[in-house]
Predict the structure.
Amino acid sequence: TPSHTSPRRVLLKLSGEAFGGGHIGIDPNVVRRIAEEVAVAVRHGVQVAIVVGGGNFFRGAELQQAGIDRSRGDYMGMLGTVMNCLALQDFLEQEGQATRVQSAIQMTQVTEPYIPLKAIRHLEKGRVVVFGAGAGMPYFSTDTVSIQRALEIHCSEVLMGKNGVDGVYTADPRKDDQAKMFTQLSYNRALVDNLAVMDASALSMARDNTLPIRVFGLETPGNVTRVLEGETLGTLVSA
Ligand code: UDP
């Protein structure tokens, strides 16, 4: 029997910086709260896939500054994202929310490999899927991977959770009190004005495939649930 409306399926991007609460490593209070808020939305029928960054451990570009080969540093960065995924999985499971981690780098004792059709099946069964290790390739970012995964598993939107800001502004609101938040912004404007949404490769992939991106503030309690359930918070980047 054909269903009336297909369920909402979205991809949530969480930066590693948020997971660390501004420090190296994991802030359990932050990760637990995010997990609680995700679990509420899933109980309300939203299908949630998540890409987690790794900036709270390592960034390849920074390791390069410290004298480490860029690609090797990038792999270190990718491995950091997997630790964040496992922490998020643990807190989600503590909420009673079944969760699978799929890594782009094989580590089959701790995660499944990235298998897109299986990821879709997990979502249909009400499980959260967390994607780790980025694209498994140096010189990529977890922002770019968020767009790619969202496209491949047919998510309607990418929801970018930010720390310290609640949307995209005309200038840095922490430095300029005249800065205004956009409620809507075109891909081209974000690219041309180099507004701090995500990196240019990620933005251009979203533009080429007209995938909407919503940038919102992670810190306000309840925001993660709200945005997952479709509230129009923050800034929508679209055509
Ligand atoms: N990374 C990579 N390829 C990918 C994804 C990530 O090489 O596909 C590396 C890169 O070094 C990056 C680090 O992993 O700096 C952590 O990811 P990211 O900086 O995107 O995390 P976030 O800023 O969201 O915390």
The chain has one domain: 9-238. The chain has a mean pLDDT of 95.
